[in-house]
């Protein structure tokens, strides 16, 4: 009888062990399955963003610059200027540079600048000192605040505008970049886009006393305003138009 009891206990133990192994195999299979699904979802999410961006930008490719976004008269304030300084006043990259204006249109800047090929910046925007150097070289910068950054439709318009300046032709000296609370003061109330340019006071002008910073604020992006602004203040009207 004792031998039979021992045999029965052993059988029960083996059954428990086998059940545990089967449960472990099921859990392992579930973990692998969930991991595969998560991996697929992560890959799909990563792929979706560029694909969705491409689709959202397709509508702007065939449009003229002036027809993208809102009408200038509906959303933009008058252009303003103020005397500029800081020409060739360079600091080492990484040096903190305070700017009184939101956003800057001139001033002390880093001794290097952003290359022309990049037109649109998001959260990976470089420090302001680089972009102010771009302004010295004749760029127009469209700054957009956090209100625009959080609005997918309006941000797509900004990207559509930036795409119109693809290429390294000097006439394509344009960049779109975010302006955040960490950068400085907010734009004027109700305004969420700012166009800036560092004017030499006229094309070919060499008298530094005539240099001005130029601003135009808008409540939303306007290709019409941007086109008019860049026609009024082309890249040649800048302290150093020949530099890239």
Question: Could you outline the blueprint of secondary structure elements for this entry?
Answer:
Elements: H1 2-61, H2 72-75, E1 80-83, E2 90-91, E3 109-110, H3 128-136, E4 140-144, H4 146-149, H5 152-163, E5 174-178, E6 193-199, E7 212-218, H6 223-232
Helix pairs in contact: 1-5
Task: Characterise this structure.
This protein is an alpha/beta fold. The protein folds into two domains: 1-62; 66-232, no CATH class. Helices cover 41% and strands 13% of the residues. It has six helices and seven strands. The longest helix is centred in the first third of the chain and has 60 residues, at 2-61. 33% of the residues are buried.
Helix content: 40-55%
Poorly predicted parts = none
- Strand adjacency order, main sheet: 1-7-6-4-5
Estimate what percentage of residues fall within beta strands: 5-15%
Mean pLDDT: 89
Element-by-element helix/strand order: HHEEEHEHHEEEH
**Computed structural class:** alpha/beta
- Topology, number of strands: 7
Global morphology: elongated
Number of helices: 6
What composes the largest sheet?
5 strands, mixed
Any idea how many domains? 2
User: What is the rounded distance between the termini?
Assistant: 97 Å
Which value, in Å, is the CA radius of gyration?
A: 29 Å
Gist of the model:
The protein is an alpha/beta fold. The chain contains six helices and seven strands, in the order H-H-E-E-E-H-E-H-H-E-E-E-H. The protein folds into two domains: about 1-60; about 65-230, no CATH class.
